[in-house]
Amino acid sequence: MDILVKGATIVTQNAKRETLKGDIFVSKGRIAKIGKNLKEKAEERIDASGKLVFPGFVNTHTHIAMTLFRGYGEGMMLQDWLTKKIWPAEAKLKPDDVYWGTMLGVAEMVRSGTTSFNEMYISGLEKIAQATEKGGIRASISLGMLDKVPGHDTSGEIGKTRHLIPKLKTRSGRVGAAVACHAPYTCSGELITKSKELARKEKLQFHIHASETRKEVFDILKETGKRPIEYLDSLGVLDQRTVLAHAVYVTKREIALAGKAKTSVSHNPVSNMKLAGGGVCPITEFAAAGANATLGTDGAASNNSLNMIETMKTASILQKNHYWDPLSLSAQLALDYATINGARALGIDAGSIEEGKLADLVFADLKAPNMAPAHDYVANIVYAMNPSNITDVMVDGKFVMRKGKITAFDEEKVVDKASAAAGALVGA
Ligand SMILES: [Zn+2]
Fold first, then answer.
1. Residue from 119, 8, 64, 54 nearest 338 by CA
2. Which fold has domain 57-346?
3. How far is the CA of 20 from the centre of ligand 1 (A)?
4. 119 Cα to the center of ligand 1, angstroms
5. Domain map of the chain by residue range?
6. Beta-strand pair 138-145/179-181
7. pLDDT tens per residue, range 22-35
8. For the chain (length 428 residues), average pLDDT per consecutive 10?
9. Which fold has domain 3-55+359-406?
10. How far apart are alpha carbons 92 and 57 in whole angstroms?
């Protein structure tokens, strides 16, 4: 279907980072034309005067079905929380629970302007793919393999991923597989090396947690004589198709290695602070060294939301405060991390509003009190906007939300089903 969007204020994220007033013609899922007074024939014409239009956000690290554990086991020490609350509940997860947890996450993502996410999870991967396909957005989905844990072994894990790769690819092409190792402290060097080889062979992204906590850094140092990112470099996994999640406790040498390899780094400031990690990912230093800086929420069990607007703001003000430098991580850079850089990390031809790009567009109400005045549209998106300002979301040239209502699925049913599944899992 062709759609003509008229009279919008467009934060393009193009090479010049222009904000334009004009029209967008969407045809066959792509942005076919941008200009003033476009007269293209379209099945649908949208009056977007009073609307700010910007590219959909890309969340480069999450565990979407963990929306089921939002607010479960608050205020505990990390290890207690995992062993006493999260892992026992996750052990009871059935594929249908994962489906409804994912749908709940997709609803939250759509409402907060996210159109793509990079998922790593332990079970129900096919249900995550089905739910995302139904939800109308994009995802790169991977099994978080591990072999240093009883019940898991190297070849069995690789076998599971091999089996899943074709099953995670959906009909629309919006959803597909990636390859993931959970983390250097849960995976052997052999598993990490073989996984990356598989990802290279299949031309897929590779996703791994790295240097999230101090404990992990010292454990890996003791075991291998190297810090986690040095270790991953020695295993040959750093390249443009790898996403390192967290990268909090790192040395200048590790930053240089990730930068040289142009690896993507997913900074998850809200989860890191909520879990009291103590450190700050030097994401601006990674970017300066040549790495692809991106943002993620992590799962809703540790965030507790999947809100990329909050993540952009938190990332920006955290870097400023950490470096005692108000010039650090500007609103424009935070938006770059959440859009074009995120799309690059996942290998998606989106992240900016330019002719030829995929039509993943978010519309926000410029007439909302917190969006006025409009001195700086980008600063308003990053520091002032909230999900309730988002009125319409388009992915692949199709609306998944119109005039504040999700059109791709029954949102009320999703909230009820997910709440019921979550209650049963924790024995409520
Ligand atoms: Zn994570």
1. 54
2. TIM Barrel (3.20.20)
3. 37
4. 9
5. 3-55+359-406, 57-346
6. parallel
7. 999 999 999 999 99
8. 97 98 98 97 96 98 96 88 90 96 98 98 97 98 96 97 98 98 97 98 98 95 98 98 98 98 98 93 98 97 96 98 98 98 98 98 98 97 98 98 98 98 87
9. Urease, subunit C; domain 1 (2.30.40)
10. 32
